[in-house]
């Protein structure tokens, strides 16, 4: 099959997304409105009969003082990655973006490579000889993932390592934690939790923790906890305006695209989180909590309510997003891995992000600049 690529409207893009069970929240048209420093464009792939068979949201980030761009398709594009002749999909995209002034194209194929069950992750953490998830045998290997990676390499694409959160060093997590929801009752979900999770949910309920849905007006409350979390966990927080823009853009596209949840106890909000939904896929997006009264376990109560609501929305998967692949006890992120897989989640490894240099001189110069910075 030969593919023809051209820009498509937001409406065409949304219809394509709505017809699929799962598309990343980073690949819906409204995500471009969340990123005003990037120029967004929806691209469509059409078959010989003129049917839209693939779509991608590309973000174009300009180089200072030059009309050249980094072109980025986070967790996309949404095409048939198992199809023969992958060149027929990707070469028209490269040609189009070269015409737009891109010097490098980065993409994140939404293709799973391996999965580890919660039991396998627990055993790996306890194994002194295992340093990373990749050191232990995966529970599931996705057929074709290794072959796809090799095809991309032969085409001139190179896998990248995730960078920082700002500037050109954009990157999405290669490893995530996902809890399967499809076909499972609430009782079955709880039975999949480890003993600590079940105990903490009971503690929160007995202590009187109440989890409620918030609205745009509650974002400053969420943000106050988020800044406290950033100080505690040593990361640079995004500004409040980012979350306000995110709310306005995503809920304008779909009222349920973004939700806010708040965990109350004795008149105080102790934890809060945002939840994103596209089709049958639900993501825990941003979380925040205070260090006060942690003994009442507001975070477990918050996540349990979000999982229940995700299941009610018809979600097939509840996605905890990024996890570390390190099993080093000295790494402070290991606690987060334990927390997420404790909910019965699987550790999932995607194919990762890949780059194609359209202008090798500029590509190398920017890479050197970022390395020195």
From TrEMBL:
Transmembrane annotation, as ranges: none
Record Pfam families: FemAB
One of the record's GO molecular function terms: aminoacyltransferase activity
One example of a Gene Ontology biological process annotation: regulation of cell shape
InterPro entries: Acyl_CoA_acyltransferase, FEMABX, PG_Glycine_Bridge_Synth
Keywords: Acyltransferase, Cell shape, Cell wall biogenesis/degradation, Peptidoglycan synthesis, Transferase
Keyword Transferase part of the UniProt annotation: yes
SUPFAM superfamilies: Acyl-CoA N-acyltransferases (Nat)
Similarity section: Belongs to the FemABX family.
Protein name: Peptidoglycan bridge formation glycyltransferase FemA/FemB family protein
């Amino acid at each position: 099959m030969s593919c023809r690529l051209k820009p498509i409207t937001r409406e065409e893009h949304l219809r394509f997304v709505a017809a699929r069970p799962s598309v990343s929240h980073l690949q819906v048209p409204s995500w471009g409105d969340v990123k005003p420093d990037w120029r967004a464009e929806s691209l469509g792939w059409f078959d010989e009969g003129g049917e839209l068979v693939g779509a991608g949201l590309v973000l174009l980030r300009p180089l200072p003082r030059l009309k050249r761009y980094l072109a980025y398709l986070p967790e996309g594009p949404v095409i048939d990655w198992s199809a023969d002749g992958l060149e027929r999909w990707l070469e028209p995209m490269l040609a189009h973006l070269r015409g737009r002034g891109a010097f490098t194209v980065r993409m994140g194929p939404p293709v799973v490579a391996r999965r580890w069950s919660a039991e396998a992750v627990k055993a790996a953490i306890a194994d002194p000889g295992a340093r990373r998830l990749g050191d232990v045998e995966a529970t599931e290997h996705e057929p074709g993932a290794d072959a796809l990676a090799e095809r991309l390499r032969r085409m001139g694409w190179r896998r990248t390592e995730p960078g920082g959160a700002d500037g050109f060093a954009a990157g999405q997590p290669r490893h995530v934690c996902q809890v399967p929801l499809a076909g499972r009752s609430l009782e079955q979900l709880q039975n999949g939790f480890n003993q600590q999770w079940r105990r903490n949910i009971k503690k929160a309920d007995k202590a009187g923790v109440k989890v409620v849905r918030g609205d745009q007006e509650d974002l400053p409350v969420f943000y106050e906890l988020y800044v406290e979390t950033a100080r505690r966990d040593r990361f640079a927080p995004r500004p409040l305006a980012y979350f306000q823009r995110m709310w306005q853009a995503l809920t304008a596209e779909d009222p349920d695209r973004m939700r806010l949840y708040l965990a109350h106890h004795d008149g105080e909000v102790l934890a809060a989180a945002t939840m994103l939904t596209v089709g049958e896929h639900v993501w825990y997006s941003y979380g925040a909590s205070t260090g006060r009264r942690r003994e009442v376990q507001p975070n477990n109560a918050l996540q349990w309510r979000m999982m229940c609501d995700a299941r009610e929305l018809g979600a097939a998967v509840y996605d905890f997003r990024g996890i570390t692949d390190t099993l080093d006890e000295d790494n402070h992120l290991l606690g987060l891995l334990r927390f997420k897989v404790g909910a019965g989640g699987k550790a999932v490894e995607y194919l990762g992000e890949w780059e194609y240099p359209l202008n090798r001189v500029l590509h190398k110069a920017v890479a050197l600049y970022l390395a020195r910075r």
